[in-house]
Every structure is written in C-alpha cells, then in structure tokens.
Amino acid sequence: QVQLEESGGGLVQPGGSLRLSCTHSRSSWGAITMGWYRQAPGKQRELVATITSGGNIRYADSVEGRFTISRDNNKRTAYLQMDNLQLEDTAVYYCNAKRTMTPTFNSWGQGTQVTVSS
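Below the sequence we write its predicted structure tokens.
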C-alpha cells in the first residue's frame, strides 16, 4: 500500500473553482494510475476522473468539460482542477492510487470535502 495525502477541498459558490491535490508516497514505482472518486450523502462512490502514468485520461460524463485531471510524476502528485462547480458536485472527494503490476496495490486517501452552495 501507499500513503496518499490530499488537499484543496472547501466551500465554493456555484460557478466557482477549486483544485484538489493528491501526493503518493512511493517514489520508486512507476505504472501508477491515479484518480479521483466522490461520494455524496446517500449515494455510492463514483468515478470522477483517472489518469495513467502515461497520461491516458478518463472522465465521468457529468464532469467532462468542467474538470481537468493532471499529474506531475516527478512530484508524485495528481491534480483535479474543478471549474464551473455545480450544487450536484458537492461530495467527499477521494484520491486513489492503483498499480496492477507487481507489487500491486489499490490505495485510498482520507477524503476531502467539497461543498458547492450559494
């Protein structure tokens, strides 16, 4: 497993922006896919966006065009730039780091609250 440190959540008005950051602890391993998931009250955790070590990106339909995921491999950090936030984006956002090559792992951050409210 790896340790993940998240930052950047908070309270924002509709139409506003936030940037989340997630740093993992394993500097000696490549081939790590990093991603963001979210869980709203009473709902299941859902994919927001993922990015592979090679830069392949996947977005949920609900955030396509508003959110941008990126990573800095030298800093072992992934970012989620969230623009034009809407009320329905309110959730706890979780960072995920996954490696499917040996040694494999699937680690989660502690979560950071994002609240969109007027």
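The chain has a mean pLDDT of 94.
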